[in-house]
Amino acid sequence: VTTTRLKDYLPPAYLVDSVTLDVDIHDGVTTVTSELALRRNPAAAVSDAMMFNGEGLTLRSLALDGKVLDENSYRYEDGELVLSGLPEKATLVSVVDIDPENNTALEGLYVSNGMYCTQCEAQGFRHITFFPDRPDVMSSFRTTVRADKKRYPLLLSNGNPVAQGEEGERHWVTWEDPFPKPCYLFALVAGDLACLEDVFVTCSGREVALRLYAEHRDLDKLDHAMASLKNAMRWDEHTYGCEYDLDIYMIVAVSHFNMGAMENKGLNIFNTACVLAHPATTTDAGFQRVESVVAHEYFHNWSGNRVTCRDWFQLSLKEGFTVFRDQMFSADMNSAAVKRVEDVDFLVNHQFPEDQGPMAHAVRPEEFEKIDNFYTLTIYEKGAEIVRMQYHLLGAEQFRKATDLYFARFDGQAVTCDDFVDCMQEVSGTDMGQFRRWYSQAGTPVLSVVDQVAPEGYRLTFRQHTPPTPGQAEKLPLVIPVRMALLDAQGEPVPLDEEGRREQVLIIDQQEQTFHFPVSESVTPSLLRGFSAPVVLEFDYRKDQLAALLSHDSDGYCRWSAAQRLYFAAMDRLVKGQSSPDLEAAALQPALEQVIDRAGEDFAQAALLLMLPSEVALGDRHSPLDPAAVHEAHQQLKQAIGRALQAHWLSLSENLLATELQMDGVAMGRRQLRNLALDYLAAGGHPEAARIAVELFELPLCMSEELGALRTLVHHGLSGAEQALAQFAQRWKDEALVMDQWFSVQASAPGESTIDVVAELLEHPAFDWKVPNRVRSVLGALAGSNPSAFNTPKGYQLFAQALGRVDALNPQIAARIANAAARLHRLEPGRQQLLRQQLQAVLETASANLREVLTRILS
Ligand code: B3K
Ligand code: ZN
Predict the structure, then answer these.
(1) Which atom of ligand 1 is nearest to the CA of 121?
(2) Ligand 1, residues at Cβ distance < 6 Å
(3) Which residue, judged by its Cα, is nearest atom 8 of ligand 1?
(4) I need a labelling partner for 526 at 20 to 30 A (CA). Which of 106, 442, 448, 804 fits?
(5) How far apart are alpha carbons 215 and 204 in whole angstroms?
(6) Catalytic pick from 297, 381, 385, 584?
(7) How far apart are CA 679 and CA 716, in angstroms?
(8) Closest C-alpha residue for ligand 1 atom 1
(9) Domain boundaries, the chain
């Protein structure tokens, strides 16, 4: 295994101005002929040698400027082809054979349900042909795809179709992409697919053909993606001045896919889970996911494709920025307050643990072994928070000027995170020097705040500290914008200065800073409003202050955060045996009742406020971690709240029922709250819970209702659960995405005994080790969201064995799932020892991808 380091970056010796590809698909073998127009890179040190990547290619011939090269004139080993003695300009033609049918790793060209498709980011293109597989080599592509006419009537690649023809049983289509792009954005599809077509007229009046492709049976599940795409296109014109640039925009839905989706130029390829949506088969959360992923990939056309990354250390340049863009889009399309809380919840409960564990790395990492392992929450979600802070520091108007500058200056180039921040700095005239540490420094900063009421007024003192992370012991102070207000006894913000401002952004850029406010009454600080910086905020709130924030704060994030603090404190006391569940529930009751009383203002927000933090999140607060004790405390509080407020849960379960299907935000919020109420009702052991769940399950209006009912039945072991599971499987056996839910509902049922269920699920005829969605629905659910089943001797053993089995087929997926074991070092000694042994056993045969992750976890 070789480590790649940012500090070793060198520009490529040669550029590839254009690529002509010929992909000839036959059963058993696909032959790829490529013609590369090479030119010495003026920006590189003079060299006549050039390296091309190539993995698993069977080389048939190589010719330079028309002359066939014999074996002595090149070197091809360890995935690298090196040619020396190249002239200033040259044409390299290679012919290779590849084997897409046996490609279970799903990178490069592979087959999914009889359809040929590609995944090239990050380094898949080298599995298709020889090429300098790095994002700073941008070329114009001309691609011809050839295949059997009957079985593959549809032949797609990037750009516009420019020629086509037939040869007996076979046919071919040539595509040309006028925009130079790195090879990671190359895509190709050959298959027999149905198409939903529409037209979008851009702001300058150009017509763009929109074509969404899926298997014929899924044609009725494309409308939502189409609507989302059109909204995203309009939004990007309006918000960023970004207009679409080709005549065609295509999305293809694929069942076997390693991630969510891929932004290939003009030809996005999507995991079916992120593009197909129908109320009968897709949950409300699924609908929202489709909307945001469709938008995300579309937004990449500018933030990623027109302006791309110089090297993979800059990945967050495109991903952090694009996540920020999709978050703002979804906020505009739906409830902004709810969206912000959902995003923060995700960041805090998933990215923070990553940043505090063995996998911690900077948003711009310094080194990696397998770049696939760095498509992380830190690069994506923390990266988005860093862009968001810049947005707020500059303000919407200046930020837009800065992004205009960024897109104009770097169009058609491969650039760095620093180039992005330079634009912010230039436009705003502020020195962003210290701010840039957010990109290089790993770890979650902790911001401790204390207040003091003095005769001269109110004082807040902030201290920042970032704990050490692997390979980075010393941390420097960051620039932390803290949006804040001070609330009076009625929950109203008081004036903070002579001008009467009631909200302010404090910039914390030293280790310790104190701020004074001319306020003499007793106040509750509302801090980090809107979650203005990705930090852990410590403040010793009194219970009554938290209850006041939860009821009165006008900031959605602060309300939610107050609720989380109340729940965590209660469960912490239960874990430590310092209190009783009924006492805790009784103490929470008035605050929760206030939320329920106001639920009609925003059902989704109420649901977020009423939902307990997960068992995993609770576990992350306790070290050494005893998952059984944490499980017990979590269950106890949930049950006690279920009992204490049972009249409310009952009436919410019954009264929020809709009579006809609606898919708007309000209807989705109602369903979310209703499902939560039903869950609490069941947790409290209410005798009506099973009846209500079964009734809903029998006659659901949509999948959110059906699955919500099924989950309640299964997770609480209510009578009717077994029958419902059987009925569900019978009803949906032909819908893969719905069956994924069937698997994951069972694998995530809390409790030790679920591990036996998981063992059976892995043997189920419908379980398929080659389909990432299915693997995730069982192993991801077990290891990621079912700590009480996972953290058992049998859980560890089963997980490790399964990991090895997945790894043999698909290293990227195995490595991704292995991340769930990153809490190893926090476990109590007994379990830690068991898990360590199991992981060590897998390590012996692990792929390079899996090895990198396991080694970090075990170190
Ligand atoms: N850029 C792709 C991710 C590719 C992951 C490769 N291992 C999807 C996205 O972020 O939009
Ligand atoms: Zn992306």
Answers:
(1) 6
(2) 121-122, 259, 261-263, 296-297, 300, 319, 372, 375
(3) 262
(4) 442
(5) 34
(6) 297
(7) 8
(8) 262
(9) 739-859
The residue whose CB lies within 8 Å of the most ligand 1 atoms, and thus the one to mutate among 107, 184, 259, is 259
Number of Cα atoms under 13 Å in the Cβ half of residue 579: 18
Strands lying side by side in the sheet with 446-454: 512-517, 457-465, 446-454, 536-538
Distances (CA, A) of 241 to 98, 216, 226, 398: 42, 36, 21, 14
Q: In what order do the strands lie in the sheet with 139-148?
A: 67-68, 58-64, 89-98, 29-40, 14-26, 139-148, 170-181, 160-167
Locate 818 and state its tokens: 């292995």
Torsion on CA atoms 114, 117, 121, 125, rounded to nearest 10 = 110
- Specify the DSSP element, H or E, that contains 393: helix 383-394
C-alpha pair distances (Å), 813 with each of 73, 535, 847: 38, 30, 11
pLDDT band per the 50, 70, 90 thresholds, residue 455: confident
339 C-alpha to center of ligand 1: Å?
Answer: 22
Q: What is the greatest pairwise CA distance in the chain? A: 93
Residue 777 carries which side chain, given as an amino acid letter?
S
Dist. CA 184–CA 151, nearest whole Å: 27
Ion ligand 2: residue ranges with CB closer than 5 A:
319, 322
pTM above 0.90, yes or no: yes
Closest ligand, as measured to the CA of 319: 2
Nearest ligand, measured from the Cα of 121 = 1
pLDDT of residue 772: 98
Closest residue to atom 4 of ligand 1, CA basis: 121
Nearest ligand by distance to the CA of 270: 1
Provide CB contacts within 8 A for 723, sequence distance 6+: none
Element (H, E) at 316: helix 315-333
Pick the CATH number of 739-859 from 1.20.1050.10, 3.40.50.920, 1.25.50.10, 1.10.3720.10: 1.25.50.10
Peptide bond into 414 cis (omega under 30): no
Q: DSSP states of 394-431 as a string?
A: H-HHHHHHHHHHHHHHHTT-EE-HHHHHHHHHHHH---
Per-residue pLDDT of 152-196, as tens digits, reads: 999 999 999 999 999 999 999 999 999 999 999 999 999 999 999
SS3 718: coil
pLDDT at 364 (0 to 100): 98
Q: 626: Cβ–Cβ under 8 A, 6 or more apart, which residues?
A: 828
Pocket residue to mutate for ligand 1, from 319, 371, 372, 810, most atoms within 8 A of Cβ: 319
Asked if 63 and 69 touch (Cβ cutoff 8 Å), the reply is yes
Q: Which among 703, 760, 779 has a CA at the least distance from the CA of 737?
A: 703
Per-state percent for the chain, helix, strand, coil, to nearest 5: 45, 25, 30
The answer to whether residue 397 is catalytic is no
pLDDT tens-digit series, residues 762-798: 999 999 999 999 999 999 999 999 999 999 999 999 9
Structure tokens at 122: 């990050």
Atom number, ligand 1, closest to the C-alpha of residue 319 = 10
Ligand 1 center to residue 175 CA distance, Å?
23
Entry field: residues in the chain: 859
| Cα of 4 from ligand 2 centre, angstroms | 22
Report which protein residue has its CA nearest ligand 1's atom 5: 121
Ligand nearest to the CA of 274: 1
Torsion sign over Cα 39, 43, 49, 50: negative
Helix (H, G, I), strand (E, B) or coil at 469: strand
Q: Please state the ipTM of this predicted complex.
A: 0.99
Task: Report how far ligand 1's centroid is from the alpha carbon of 259 (Å).
Answer: 7
> Which of 120, 183, 254, 262 to mutate for ligand 1's pocket (most ligand atoms within 8 Å of CB)?
262
User: Closest residue (by CA) to atom 10 of ligand 1?
Assistant: 319
